[in-house]
Amino acid sequence: MKFYIKQKVFSWADRFNVTDENGETRYSVKGELISIGKQLHIYDNADREVAFIQQKVLSFKPRFFVFVNGEQIAEIVKEFTLFRPKYSILGKGWVVNGDFWDHDYVITEEGNTVASVHKVWMSWGDSYELNLVDTNDEVGLLAVILAIDAVMDAQESR
Fold it and tell me: From CA 26, how far away is CA 94, in angstroms rounded?
């Protein structure tokens, strides 16, 4: 299943929608304007919070926690590397590989692709196409992808 994210260029807090292939809003993402560290809430169409992403503030490496339905499912850590960024997803058994500078990467589990992310160039604001192969963990995959984006954003703002 394909999802699309178009983040607003000028926004005081992160607020954007996740749409499906038909342009229908499936999820809305809202960041907290005033918080210690980045925090994102993901809501379904019934306005129920289905996932929460929280930055660990006092950490040597950029680190984010992903919660789905109140339970921590993953921890995203940016590893120290010299030339290419590398991210670890702890707790899910997923591996992330690709070109993070161009926002073009895949998430695999035991060698099988469960999701891919591609940045849509030539658009106003950041736009991404997410191809979720494993729709059984749709919210978890979406939250992990948004957490990876948050790690990259936190790293760029340092």
Answer: 24
